[in-house]
Amino acid sequence: PVLVVDFGAQYAQLIARRVREARVYSEIVPSSMSAAEMLARDPAAIILSGGPSSVYEPGAPQVDPKIFDADVPVFGICYGFQAMAAALGGEVAHTGAREYGGTPVVVAADPGVLLRGLPAEFNVWMSHGDAVATAPAGFTVTASSSAPVVAFEDLATRRAGVQFHPEVAHTEHGQTMLQRFLYDIAGIEPAWTPSNIIDDQVAVIREKVGDRQVICGLSGGVDSAVAAALVHKAVGDQLTCVFVDHGLLRAGEAEQVENDYVAATGIRLKVVNAQDRFLSALAGVTDPETKRKIIGREFIRVFEAAAREVDTERHVEFLVQGTLYPDVVESGGGDGAANIKSHHNVGGLPDDLRFALVEPLRTLFKDEVRQLGLELGLPPEMVWRHPFPGPGLAIRIIGEVTADRLDLLREADLIAREELTAAGLDRDVWQFPVVLLADVRSVGVQGDGRTYGHPVVLRPVSSEDAMTADWSRLPYDLVGRISTRITNEVREVNRVVLDVTSKPPGTIEWE
Ligand code: XMP
């Protein structure tokens, strides 16, 4: 792999993704990792990422200088650029001159390999206080800004670096420069493709599982669907999937799992119809946190009972989880740390039902999971599905959850989704919750009569990761069409309102 050394800024994940977009496999490692450990992974190259510190600050994370004794290509970015310069005998200065944001850089007369063929001047994204004053011996300086050295390279040792952030979209030619390093300086072949990933994972799963039995819970979401499809490709009939239909999914979603997904994969599926059980458990409950707790508890109970049946028939030893790479990195990156989180996900399963985990998506980002899903032949509507909360529509009904209200909300939600898709805007929106204010009524007029119905809230948001979000500026005529259709077609709804709150201060969901 290419190792991306994380110096504690938010950029390491983005760099790792960009490297993979260049079809080169990458992994993130902490800066505390020793050179010996890094080299033990036989890295094709090492990328030193940006970080918040100054290289001369006491306690600043340092890269183990022994990586420079090895014959491994190294690329330094921002803080990593300075750390590399300092480690190799260059000079890093507290210039006091800060560059932040969009900054023009000027390419030197000799643009080297990294900047070859790029415009003489272009804009990059900078974020630094210190600057490299003198490049280490052997390096050619290939660009400057108000700082004298913002790009350098040494082809003999296959090392290069840039002061700016090639991984962010605001840097012009960023991906080109990253690829120049990977392909032309480090000499790496771009060979990481979805079908490669599938072949690798299939081999790993077969090795781990052997001829033993595996179980997987499907939620209707992308991650569990792709994880199960991969495991099925690896061990076929040894996999049993369980789908708990809690009745809180949107229109068509249960059918998508039970029909389209099964048809596409040939997976053996055990469906548990638990709608009534969830409705009874939720009767009379209006508090959001209580709803969540009840749903979580009932879900574990129902899944446990189903898993026990499968276990009795087949003696199950493994449980598939759709854990993704960002979860692994955020929970510490190490295997131990990530397992704590995974176990937490299946928390509640009793000790005599402890399964070993199979997590085939542990090294993948969400967009890669989607690519795999398409490659595995899953229904595209499923692969491109927006994120959807585990407690489902229950936390989009403000007030008590009843069968009737679920039906109303499903109708309104379907209209919003249909119109968004018809407008070709599915991929422009992160999520589009539709919320039923079941405890609110307002007066309206329809035909000749007064109505006294419920409002529905449209909550389209754009986001990168759901941690922050902004309300989506959907075209007004689209919002208008959704409003007209909902008030015409959904009985008891006589008003549609648009939520124009960002997160923070609002959350994406209303409960
Ligand atoms: P909020 O409402 O906190 O949501 O801005 C952030 C993201 O998390 C989803 N969400 C949940 N997902 N169980 C889940 O699996 C939950 O209880 C839950 N609550 C919110 C929400 O849809 C959004 O993507």
Automatic annotation (TrEMBL):
Pathway: Purine metabolism; GMP biosynthesis; GMP from XMP (L-Gln route): step 1/1
Binding site for ATP: S219, G220, G221, V222, D223, S224, A225
Keywords: ATP-binding, Glutamine amidotransferase, GMP biosynthesis, Ligase, Nucleotide-binding, Purine biosynthesis
The GMPS ATP-PPase domain, residue ranges: 192-385
InterPro entries found in the cross-reference section: Class_I_gatase-like, GATASE, GMP_synth_C, GMP_synth_GATase, GMP_synthase, GMPS_ATP_PPase_dom, NAD/GMP_synthase, Rossmann-like_a/b/a_fold
Active site: C78 (nucleophile), H165, E167
Signal peptide: none
Its EC number(s): 6.3.5.2
Keyword Ligase in annotation: yes
The keyword ATP-binding belongs to this UniProt entry's keyword annotation: yes
Catalytic activity, reaction form: XMP + L-glutamine + ATP + H2O = GMP + L-glutamate + AMP + diphosphate + 2 H(+)
Complex and partners: Homodimer.
Function: Catalyzes the synthesis of GMP from XMP.
Name of the protein: GMP synthase [glutamine-hydrolyzing]
Species, as recorded: Pilimelia columellifera subsp. columellifera
Organism taxonomic ancestry: Bacteria, Bacillati, Actinomycetota, Actinomycetes, Micromonosporales
